[in-house]
């Protein structure tokens, strides 16, 4: 990857990818949708999170689904745009920026969500085979154990391994879906997901973690 500090021609797209990714990632769709639906502040119910799982605790499944799609979509769109207008290198930066934006949104005094949907959206856009594997892992664990947090932790932990596995395979005329940068991005997001889920991890160990669908 070119050095963004040593060459001014790379400085502005480097900053643009990171900043635009962050600003788009900062949009709190869960909070916006619940307020528009007249359900109040989603941060005052359940876990206090602005993500789809907590929106589901309002009892509105369609609103939770919309939150899931939009939170995932904002992560995917910044990656796809950066990859189209710039390069894969900057797409990685944009994806990381969007993920950080969801976790630490400017509009909410840097108190955001846990980033699972945005993480999956970024993974699907940055390496769709690994992203599909991550999404299926989350879905399988969520369906069998009914715990969104545990599903997220397992999917996040496995994501760098999925990308690494793709490094060993050449697909579609030598286009790689796995490389060191994408491994680093997936590992970076996985670490932050574990940090953001530290309370959930404690409850999982105690057997008190809420199940999916519980208000």
Descriptive overview:
The protein has one domain. The protein has ten helices and no strands. 45% of the residues are buried. With 215 residues, the protein is mostly helical. Helices cover 68% and strands 0% of the residues. The radius of gyration is 17 Å and the shape is globular. The mean pLDDT is 86.
Overall mean pLDDT: 86
How much of the sequence is in beta strands? under 5%
**Shape type:** globular
What are the low-pLDDT stretches, counting only 5+ consecutive residues below 50? none
Count of domains? 1
Spell out the helices and strands N to C.
HHHHHHHHHH
> What's the number of extended β-strand segments?
0
Q: What share of the residues lie within helices?
A: 55-70%
Largest beta-sheet characterization: none
Number of helices: 10
Give the termini distance in whole angstroms.
Answer: 47 Å
> Which structural class is indicated by helix and strand composition?
mainly alpha
Radius of gyration: 17 Å
Show the helix and strand layout.
Blueprint: H1 8-25, H2 29-36, H3 52-56, H4 61-85, H5 88-103, H6 116-126, H7 128-145, H8 148-167, H9 180-196, H10 198-206
Helix pairs in contact: 1-4, 1-5, 2-4, 4-5, 4-6, 5-6, 5-9, 6-7, 6-9, 7-8, 8-9
Compose a concise summary of this entry.
With 215 residues, the protein is mostly helical. The chain contains ten helices and no strands.
